[in-house]
Amino acid sequence: MKSIFSxxxxxxxxxxxxxxxxxxxxxxxxxxxxxxxLLIIPKKEIRDIQSFGPEDFGLAAAIFQxxxxxxxxxxxxxxxxxxxxxxxxxxxRVFHVHxxxxxxxxxxx
Length: 109
Ligand code: 5GP
Fold this sequence. Notes:
Elements: H1 4-9, E1 17-20, E2 24-28, E3 36-42, H2 58-73, E4 80-83, E5 99-103
Antiparallel strand pairs: 1-2, 2-3, 3-5, 4-5
The structure holds guanosine-5'-monophosphate.
């Protein structure tokens, strides 16, 4: 079954899309935990980092590159936190790998 993020990528369900390229889509998180809370999502549906194949690690670079681009283009996002929850115990709830891009507030914890 398709993940909720694949449905967003395929425009089957709506989302606020902030950026997109061949490999990645960036959307606003529906339940933001910071003033700026974006999700950087590889278009390839991979469950979690544990499931990456050798051919998938370029996506990690694509995520970092997109994070840099967002920090330069989204007002207030010059400094940011990038977080990946990989596995249920780590807090992952959507099993389509993604990075949380959090910014716009002091994050001390
Ligand atoms: P996880 O806990 O898997 O690391 O993060 C999943 C994130 O996806 C959560 O922060 C949650 O708010 C967000 N999310 C879940 N469903 C949707 C949705 O349908 N649309 C958007 N924009 N975000 C979603």
